[in-house]
Structure formats: C-alpha cells, structure tokens
Request: fold
Amino acid sequence: MDVDVVNMFVLAGVTLVIPILAFFASFYMWPAAIIHVYNCKDVCQLVSAYPGNPSGPAFLPKHQHLLCVDMPGHEGTSRTDARDYSIEGQVKRIRQFVESVRLTKRPFHLVGTSMGGNVAGVYAARYPNDLCSVTLICPAGLPNESLFVERLRELEKDQELSGSLDPQAIPLIPSTPEEMEDMLKLCSFVRFKIPQQILQGLVDVRVPNNDFYRELFMEIVGEKSRHSLHENMHLITAPTQVIWGKHDQVVDVSGASMLKEAVSGCQVDLLDNCGHSVVMERPRKTAQLIMDFINNQHNTGSGSNSKKLS
Reply:
C-alpha cells in the first residue's frame, strides 16, 4: 500500500514537472534558437523610424530572416538617457544589438527609413564590414529644404525665440485631432477622409508619449545629429539603395541626388504619387524594390570575391 502511495506521488510530481520544464525551456532557450537560425538563412535587418507599425515587412518573402529593431518612439524598447537619442547614440545601440545576437558572423542587409535611414547610413559608414548592402528610405540627416523645414523656421520666427524652437509646436507631434490631420497630410501624398473619432483615438494614444517624442525630436534636429548622414555619407562603401517618394514634404527628395553623387554606385528608386511615409503608402512596391536590389547584389557577388548576403 505504501509503495502505491509513493508511486502515485511520483507520477503526480512528474506530471507537474514536465510542463514547468517545458515552459522554462521555451522561455529561456527559444529566443536563442530563433537567433541561431540566421546561420542557415538569409538575413535582412530592418531599422524603422516611422512612429507606427511599418507595413513593408509583411510583403517581404517568408524565407527571409527579418529582424525589426525597435527604434525610439515605437513604444517597445525601454527608454534610456536622453543623450542616447542622438544619431551616434542610436548607431552605437544598434551595434550593441548586432554584437549581442552575433550578426557579425556574416554580412547582412540593413534598411532604415526617415530617422532610421539616418541611423542606417551612419552605421554603414561606421561599420562597413558588417554589411553586404544597405537601403535608405527617405533618410533624414541631409541639409535639404522642405515644406516641413519651412514650417519649423516660420515657427521659430513667429515665436521670436532667438532661433530656438518651441517643442510644443512641432508639426510631427500632434496634440489635437486637427493637428493629427495636418500631420497625416504632411507625411502622406494620398489624401484620406478620416473620421473625427479615429483622429481623436490616434491623438489619445500619442499624447501620453508626446513629451518623449519632443525630447527625441529636439535631440535629432540638434547640431550634433541634424546633418549626421551628410557628414558621413562619403564613408559609405557598401552597395547602397535609396528609395524616396517624389512628393516628400518632410525630407525633400533632392537628398537622393546628394547621396547618388557621394556614394559610389548608389542606386536611386523614386516613387510616383508617394510622400514621406513610403512604407505606409507603398509597402508592396517598397518590398519589391528592396528584394530586387538584394537579389541583384547577391547575383553580382556570387561570381566574385564581393561580400555575399548571409
């Protein structure tokens, strides 16, 4: 009888231990297993800076190993010291991530849009051996004029703050439904009639984080970061693709010509009827252009000693 009782407890204990062990194994080992997979698959790392969920990755081939790095403003990554929000600070954090997941074993393709394009470009200049190629989508960090820049200057002039900008009046950081509608018009070429309730909902989601957005914005338009890409673009040696909406009102499309002149062999793809939010307005076309570029680089390098996409 005692033996039966002991066996019953042993059986019950094993029954409880197995799911607990399975949980801990999945919790601690699964992320490492996912990261390890990149050793046998193509790697495409996407660095996105648009304050929302980019649609582009959904149209990329499923066999690609895609790593989407959470940039400041997307609300997934813990916020750090304000000094880390500079372009140089963000480049260093991306590098730390790359080293942590051991992506440096083989060159990978890097993609960045807007602020992320600035970060990706400076990363390519700083760490050329990490990359097989890079795609910059309407990147910030260039000294070009645009409607957005004009508005900032008008605000500075109207507020008579001796050239300093009132953080409360930044067009890309709306606090009311009307300001949200203006921001969407500024960022997008396509005009949508958005119901007032939706605009209010979008504002309600963003307003609690607006102080952080202002802090981030003031850092990346400061003297240290404003023209980071322009200061480093001549150091980019990786095959480079530039994608830009022809009707971009935030970062003027003339920046594409600057990059083409400064970066050897730079490929430029301009999109008709598209504004600044390229990955939101033209996600399928953007994904197609990126994959065509990667495949062309892969085919070109397969018969030479050029870097090969991992």
